[in-house]
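Support case: 9MJ complex. Customer-provided input:
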Amino acid sequence: MSFAKTKARVKALHKALNEHNHRYYVLDDPSVSDAQYDELFHELRNIEEEYPELLTEDSPTQRVGSAPLESFDSVVHAVPMLSLGNAFSPEDLADFDRQVIERLDSPEQITYVAEPKLDGLAVSLRYENGKFIQGATRGDGATGENVTANLKTIPSIPLNLRGKNLPEVLEVRGEVFMSHAAFKANNERLEANGQKLFVNPRNAAAGGLRQLDSKKTAERQLSIYCYGLGELRGASEPATQFDMFAWLKSLGLPTNGEVARCQGHDACYRYYEALGKKRSTLPYDIDGVVFKVDELRLQRELGQRSRAPRWAIAQKFPAEEVTTKLDSIDWQVGRTGALTPVARLEPVFVGGVTVTNATLHNIDEIERKDVRVGDTVVVRRAGDVIPEVARVVLDERKKGARKVALPAKCPVCESAVARADGDVVARCTGGLGRCGAQQREGIKHFASRRAMDIDGLGDKLVDQLTDAGLVTTYADVFTLEVDAVAELPRLAKKSAQNLINSINASKQTTLARFIFALGIREVGETTAGLLADKFKTLDALIQADEVSLQGLKDVGPVAAASVAEFFSHGNNLEIVNSMIAAGVAFPPPAEQASTDVEQTLDGHTYVLTGTLAEMTRDEAKALLQQLGAKVSGSVSKKTTALIAGEKAGSKLTKAESLGVPVLDDAGLKELLRPLSP
Ligand code: 9MJ
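Agent response - structure generated as follows:
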C-alpha cells in the first residue's frame, strides 16, 4: 500500500472506530460485533506501530497509554462549576418553585427540565474546535484537577465532536459515574486477584478518576452523562436546557435518556415520584432528581447565590431502607459516661455500604420503637450519616422476644448506671477515675485536633495504647517512652519517635485548649475560651468556687457546676498537676493580640456553614472573632450574614427564608481583609 493510501486508511479507521464507539457507548445501538470492532482496532494499531508519524493524539488507540503522572496539575475553570442546593421534602420543592416564580415575577408556571441526579463526580470537558483538549474535576468549583488522561479512557467521551461548524471553545459539564454492570465486573476482577472489593460504585468511580496511572482508570470502565455548559465561544447558546441536551447529543456527547421537560411544580413532583419507582431498575445509582429552569435566559436572570444556582435544585430521594435481623444490643460508653445502645445486625447492604451496627440513640428510643432482640428491623442510611434502626417489623416478631432494659451496671467498669430526672441519657457513674471506656474516649478527645492537637495520636492508636495499659490518664500521655510505644503492633521505632515528638510539641498550648481538652462536661470550645479569658491562669480557675463561676456571664449554671465539680476531685487535680509538671504550659499569645486589630466587625454576628475553600470553619471563626465579630451556630433574624461554603445545607435554606445575606468565600475574604498584611 502506498503511504498516501495508508494515510487514507488510517483516516477511514478513525472514522469507523469513532462511529462504532459512539453507537455502542452513547447510542447504545451497536452495528458491529465486538470481534469486528477489535479487528479494526488492531489494524489501526498495527499501522501506527509501523508508521509512528501517522499516530495522532486523538486516535481511538490513544485512550489509554499516557505514562503515569507524578501528580495532577490544577485547572482554573473558565466558568466556575456550581454545586446544587438540596430539597428533601415536597414542601422544599414547592418553596423552590415559589421563589423562582417570585424572583422572575412570572405570571405563569415555570417550565423545568428534570434530570436524574447521578451520584458520581462532576467534571468539565474542554473542546477547542471540536477536539477534546482538557478535562478537570470540579474541585472547589473554582479550581479542579487536570484529569484529561483519565477522562480519555472513558469510551463515551468523544475525542472529537461530531458535526460541522464546531464552536471554538466548548466546555461541557457532566457527571462521571460507574454503572452497576461495571461495578460488578470490577469486583469480580478484584476478587479473582484476591484484592479488596469496592464498597460502592461512587467510591470506585471517585477513586478511578483520581488514579495517576490512567491504565488503572481504564480498568474501571467509567461512564459519563453531560448536563451543562461552561465556557462557550464561537457558537450561540441554545435557548433552553432541553435544547442544550439535544445539541450536546448531536455533538456526540453522552446525555441521559431519562431527561424530561416538566410544566410547573406538580409535573416536577410527578416526575420525581415516577423516577423513584423506576430507580431500582436503572443501570446506575441515582440519589434524586435535579430540576432546572428550562430557559437559559431565565437561568441567567436568576443567577446564583454562594456557589449554587438559584435556577436549579436537587430533590433527594429519602434514605434507603432495608430489613435485617437484630442479633443483639450492646451499650457503648462514651467520654462523659453516656450509654448509647448499639444494634448488632446481620450484615445488610444499604445506602451504598454494608452495615452491621446501627444506633438506637437511647433507652427512650428503644422503648418508643419497642425494639427487641431477635426482631426483624428496618435499617436506614442516608448519605454519610450513621445508620439507624427506623422501626420494627412487628409481624415478624418471634414469640417471647425479650424487651431490652437499661443495664444497671456499666458494661465496662461495672460502676452503677444513673439517669438524672428528665434526662434521656443514662450514664456510668465511674467517671474518668474508674471507667476504662471513659478514660479511652477522654484521651481520644484530649488528643484531638481542637483540643491538644497531638499529631499522629488518632483513635486507633489511643485504643492500642489503652489496651496495652500504657495510658490510663491524660497525664500518662506525657510520660510515654519511645521504646514502649515501639513495642506496639504495627509501630516501628521511627513512628514511635514521631509520636513522642508531637506529644512534646503539644505541651506548648493555650489555656483555652487545655480546659477544653480536659473534657469537663458541658464545657465546649466556646465555654473553655470564656473561662480562659476570665481566669487567665489555670490556678485561678482551679481556685474559683462555684459561686464565682455561676456569676460569669455566658457560662451557664450547669457548666459552672460541672467545672467546680471537676476540680473538686483530688484525682483530677493530681492528673492536671502531673501534666503541668511534665511541661504542659500556656505561654501568652504572641504580640499580635486581637485587641491591637481594629474591631471592624464589632456588633456583627456571622454563622458559618459548609466547606470553605481556603480554611476550616474553625479558622474562619477565629479570624472573624479577632475582628470583633460574634460567630454563632444558628441562623436567626439577627444574623448579619451567613458565610456558606461548599455543601451548605439547612442553614442556607434558613438564611434565605429569613432574608439573611449569604456570603461566599470571596465575601469572607473581603471581611477578613483588615487582617491581611
Ligand atoms: C447530576 N449530579 O446528575 C447537575 N447533576 O447542574 C445534574 N448535577 C448540576 N445536573 C448544575 N444532572 C450543577 C450541578
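The pocket of 9MJ is lined by residues 82, 84, 115, 117-118, 175, 227-228, 290, 312 (CB under 6 Å).

Case will auto-close in a few days if no follow-up is received.
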